[in-house]
Amino acid sequence: MSESMTDFARATQEILLAGQRMDARGWVPATAGNISRRLPDGRIAITRSGCHKGFLKAEDVITVNGGGIAHRPGDKPSAETLLHCQIYQQDPTAGAVLHGHSVASTVLSMIEKSPALHLADYEVQKVFEGQTTHEASVPVPLFENDQDIARLAQKVTPFFGTMPAGYIIRGHGVYVWGKDMPTALARLEGLEFLLACLLERRKLGQ
Amino acid sequence: MSESMTDFARATQEILLAGQRMDARGWVPATAGNISRRLPDGRIAITRSGCHKGFLKAEDVITVNGGGIAHRPGDKPSAETLLHCQIYQQDPTAGAVLHGHSVASTVLSMIEKSPALHLADYEVQKVFEGQTTHEASVPVPLFENDQDIARLAQKVTPFFGTMPAGYIIRGHGVYVWGKDMPTALARLEGLEFLLACLLERRKLGQ
Amino acid sequence: MSESMTDFARATQEILLAGQRMDARGWVPATAGNISRRLPDGRIAITRSGCHKGFLKAEDVITVNGGGIAHRPGDKPSAETLLHCQIYQQDPTAGAVLHGHSVASTVLSMIEKSPALHLADYEVQKVFEGQTTHEASVPVPLFENDQDIARLAQKVTPFFGTMPAGYIIRGHGVYVWGKDMPTALARLEGLEFLLACLLERRKLGQ
Amino acid sequence: MSESMTDFARATQEILLAGQRMDARGWVPATAGNISRRLPDGRIAITRSGCHKGFLKAEDVITVNGGGIAHRPGDKPSAETLLHCQIYQQDPTAGAVLHGHSVASTVLSMIEKSPALHLADYEVQKVFEGQTTHEASVPVPLFENDQDIARLAQKVTPFFGTMPAGYIIRGHGVYVWGKDMPTALARLEGLEFLLACLLERRKLGQ
């Protein structure tokens, strides 16, 4: 990207490409999912409510403050913007947040009754924050879906610092983040790959 | 699209792109499926019989009247054109109709013996008409396939107003619609995503 | 295609595009599969032995006579060229033949011990020669694989005229044909779609 | 490629295209996998540690010597570079090595407790070194994953010459090689296709 692009223009471009990538993988069906990027000045660039993430245009990216309020009157952020804001607030290193809906995360979160999925013995789990070996077990917390996002966020708060692979809302999808967009995308790909493995193993009775 | 395009040219372009999208997802194998758009003057633009929906050319889109009769002598609409006409007649808000054949809809409709599939507890079901929460159950009616399309249409008639996610013909495929093409496509993607989830859950004994 | 293209150049172009399509669907892994087209003068244009069907170049298409002998000394046809020649000989209407290897055809042909798979109650089966309703059962014969292609061909001979959807060699793949390339491709897509449905149904105990 | 390209530039181009191909198939999630090419002068061109294999740039390819030491100070090879070097040392005909992580190889290697998977009766197995018929059984050894790559390599050493389809590290992925990049890619596609078949057959109780 050109040196002279503004931080917002750069973030917008990253968000559009991330949306296309997630769409190619089938992780943002219909108008599901949302994508954000923290700007150096603290503003958050995030996808507008209701658009398809595979076909985003520059005008589909808006900015909100740390409380999820749009800077420009009339811009309508998605209700789930609050979950992005929470991640940026709780993790000062977070620079990008991805929320997607895959078949594997949706199905596994609905059939697993315990409060977390566990990823163990996979080489790919080294992509998650602080992981250096496959000989570990990475928990992925499962939260009940709730149309009251503030109430949902409250349940997530105590888990920050203990979910290196992100978290899943039951019947809804994953939240993954990283210091920048490539890191967040790599973690999302890693998590979705491992959930796909987990789903296949369940079909084989494991 | 350019301001000066005719309504028919616009509709044709939308239909071609929708066909390519459905093909990329594997929902229009062989010459299966059909796609239509209601024009402001009441005519219906619809795919010609027998062509592949992933490789449509402009001349593969024809117009029919509300009774499914082609305006231009020699144009051959598919037999299923009547199901499109029925949707436009029954739902005055419908502006686009999509009919696709996916593995998930085909298989689920053949193994489920009750008269409907039920979608419940999924966030994505909010994409369907009038849905605001995952805490609902959306029925998707299943109709027996019939080569006599008029007779098939009669069985569908009583269900209008009660099938926000569209309907499925057993061993055949889905019918989904919306006020415009992006809405219809988003609903189709939502429905196919949820059917894929349902199929995976059945494999796991649910 | 331009009026002035030779028949061979036209056939080559159709074969290259068919290879790319089959590769995009995952039906020609490694150097598997082969593709041919009968020319108006009776020559058969067919893919050379050993090349990847998703990355064919014009020089990867050669011509053979009805007995499978290359017209140009040094051109090496694949051993399976004889199966293409057999189809053109047995079915005078055949203009294009496709041979692909899919996961579904490979797996189903290895687990089904009876001499045929049966496709019934699917709308898509209307894409096959002479089928006008889903209320029929289309048999797809299964032949044992054999590195002696002439011996394999002999076992196929008696079935011509009774296999509208083509046939399958166990652990190997499908043979499908049609009057021209679009027809052959549509039948291949139809067959693979239905085999994918069959495989899913088997997982569900059907 | 142009005559005047250096061997390293040619190898880099082949590695970038191989990465895009593996990514399109879903075999290099996150920053997983690595790809190398032996140059005529004995140097090994290999992907740098930590980058996404689907989005490689020329500067992501570095050169190492036969012991895995980077020629340019500051270039950081991945720890698994040693496994590539081992293959080039043990098999003088090897010109390209591919390491990918697929769902099928990961899942099968974790559920199979015996020391190898066996591929038998598949036509596609003829793509592997020295195979001329489907009537053979090709073993694919399974090794325990180990973050100590030198120790892992020692366990692989005795198997060279007896693994025509490559090998698998449990919960980690496959290593496949060939005399040049197209051969290595064809073998990788062949192996992944057969592992996908094996996984489907296990779901059906075989």
CATH-level-4 superfamily name of chain A:
Class II aldolase/adducin N-terminal domain
Strand content of chain A: 15-25%
Q: Largest interface, per-chain counts?
A: A-D, 24 and 23 residues
Q: Which CATH C-level class of chain A is it? A: Alpha Beta
Number of domains of chain A: 1
DSSP summary: helix tally of chain A = 5
Q: Do you know the CATH topology of chain A?
A: L-fuculose-1-phosphate Aldolase
Q: What Rg of chain A is obtained from the alpha carbons, in whole angstroms?
A: 16 Å
In sequence order, what are the helices and strands of chain A, one letter per element?
A: HEEEHEHEEHEEH
Contiguous low-pLDDT stretches of chain A (5 residues minimum) are none
Q: Give the oligomeric state of the chains in this entry, treating copies of one chain as homo and distinct chains as hetero.
A: homotetramer
Helix share bin of chain A: 25-40%
CATH architectural type of chain A: 3-Layer(aba) Sandwich
EC number (chains A, B, C, D): 4.2.1.109
Binding site for Zn(2+) (chains A, B, C, D): 99, 101
GO biological process, one term (chains A, B, C, D): pentose catabolic process
Keywords (chains A, B, C, D): Amino-acid biosynthesis, Lyase, Metal-binding, Methionine biosynthesis, Zinc
